[in-house]
Amino acid sequence: MDNKHIFTEKLRSSGLRPTKQRIEICKLLFNRKDTFHFSISDLKNISTKKISLATIYNTIHAFTRKGYLKEISINSDKTYFDTNTSDHHHFFDENKKKLIDLDDNNVGKIKIKKTLPGKKIKSVEILVRITNDN
Questions:
Q1: What distance in Å separates the CA atoms of residue 121 and residue 132, rounded to the nearest whole number?
Q2: Going from the N-terminus, what domains does the chain have, and what CATH number goes with each?
């Protein structure tokens, strides 16, 4: 599937020039049927083209600012990105270092009892950490 014109528009609307390397990043991210969870190092490792880490980093963060990707912080030194930008929950498999979507119908009603003056809740997203049973 050739979506070069769609990728070019995504890049331009994110304030980026559509270079060959950035179009390759778009293919890796958006030329797929299923949601894609990844870290910047994951993306670097699956790329078959020579793309600098700075280009990957800048492109991913421009896409995140534009709303094409969602950033999910696992801890202070590990961040994943998600091509599904809707509000939804995740499992994080600590053994496999893998982020997995958790459907809303698998989570009961969430009630937040505390409010902060002058603030309203924008969304609630749960990160459930899982590990092997042994």
A1: 33
A2: 4-82 (1.10.10.10), 89-130 (no CATH)
